[in-house]
């Protein structure tokens, strides 16, 4: 793949798009400097991306189970689903200074792309890339726990990935088994709940068994809900939801006239969490697509694409993604 | 990272600085007020330069000075989707201008989307205006006029999740509500066929351009964007043809491995 300079996605420092982005983000400072009777005509059309504390709108969330309150305009808006007292316990959530507690996403989804390219760029075998990717995965979990993110969904293996060489898929399955064997204790200690979405029946039997045990052992954990998408396809998720609905109709549990999009949504695999809709999707390695991941659930999800390869995605990159998320306007098909 | 930290620090002090400004203003100190206005002038000049650079770049790209943008391989973009924020979609003239640009670049199949269905209401007007412009600029006997026409599909939120729910109903009637007790295994092809049966036969877009404040696709039919490249272009009122050409060029350089 050619080395394509970033154009319209999250910019690198000192490139033209980043200067423009920085100029736009600095507008609130500019506006706050300017007395109300005098505003430069040239910049009146630019919107404030961040408001003063007293004028901040309620935080919006895609979570279908999030509480709804009446916003300043009188229209009902959806407020961040995490209960206020969760962040009151300052001992468990310690945010960097550049992040605001009230604007933290409930649910972050990650497409961990770029392991093979990372290895290839260093003339390493592919296994090194996946090992480095696993270390980045561990770092992300730790950060998500420390920064109070409730749900983290990671795209570990796509149903399309079976087309890769068997040696590579066997390597990946072996890596997953090793992770489950040696990290389960850590997940229990850190109070992390594990769920699996995707068609597990095609995974090796041993891995299936380990997954079932991990899901069962961690089901009461509550600090972080880690959803692992393995052999997952967004389209297949929708199809299996429709199949479940059809079974329920055939069993007389649902009336055929009641079939609507809400019913489909309830049967998707992500209904295992209280916040099935990610607030933020991060994809690494510079690719600007969703690649059949959570297609239904990402309707109003903020999309963040970064050029960093997955093994290089660390604290600073995650912080940048969250800062970018907190500074964007979010709309949910209506007005703010 | 340093820029982000700097930006966050500046923003955090923004409101405090406003209070400081009000204090300066009320204190009557002319020297401080002069310093404030100088700072304001510097910032204004900075924004002006940024805007000017963007306009110059767009002009240079659209004038064909850069070879790579001049020799755009438009055949790689078989189907383009444009998702527009519903409030911004009310700017019909801007949407028309965008369609004109897309037609001039060489695109033939475009899908317009907005959540609330605003574009559906203006579809007829857009199609008519485009057709009139085409007729007035081409000779009546030009056999290639029809080939150059932009094929426009206009959809809204109801064509996404609601369509899938309707397709689920079709699948239910076809596969499950028969006397046959065997439970058939539904596949993605079955869903695609069901969507086609209720009128949704258009192909998946290769590239989606998003115009609006939020960097999300605003509920574009999920079934169709499995491998679609997604680019956020900013507000519709600030759209530039140079940015459009740049976005399409970027797509033509991308290699997709489709999971392999």
TrEMBL record, chain B:
Cofactor dependency: Mg(2+)
Domain of life from the UniProt record: Eukaryota
Pathway: Protein modification; protein glycosylation
GO molecular function, one term: ditrans,polycis-polyprenyl diphosphate synthase [(2E,6E)-farnesyl diphosphate specific] activity
Keyword line: Endoplasmic reticulum, Magnesium, Membrane, Transferase, Transmembrane, Transmembrane helix
Catalytic activity line of the entry: n isopentenyl diphosphate + (2E,6E)-farnesyl diphosphate = a di-trans,poly-cis-polyprenyl diphosphate + n diphosphate
Membrane-spanning parts: 45-66
Keyword Cell wall biogenesis/degradation attributed: no
Coarse class of the protein's main subcellular location: endoplasmic reticulum
Protein's UniProt keywords contain DNA damage: no
CC annotations in GO: dehydrodolichyl diphosphate synthase complex; endoplasmic reticulum membrane
Compartments where found: Endoplasmic reticulum membrane
Enzyme Commission code(s) on record: 2.5.1.87
Family: Belongs to the UPP synthase family.
Name this polypeptide is given: ditrans,polycis-polyprenyl diphosphate synthase [(2E,6E)-farnesyldiphosphate specific]
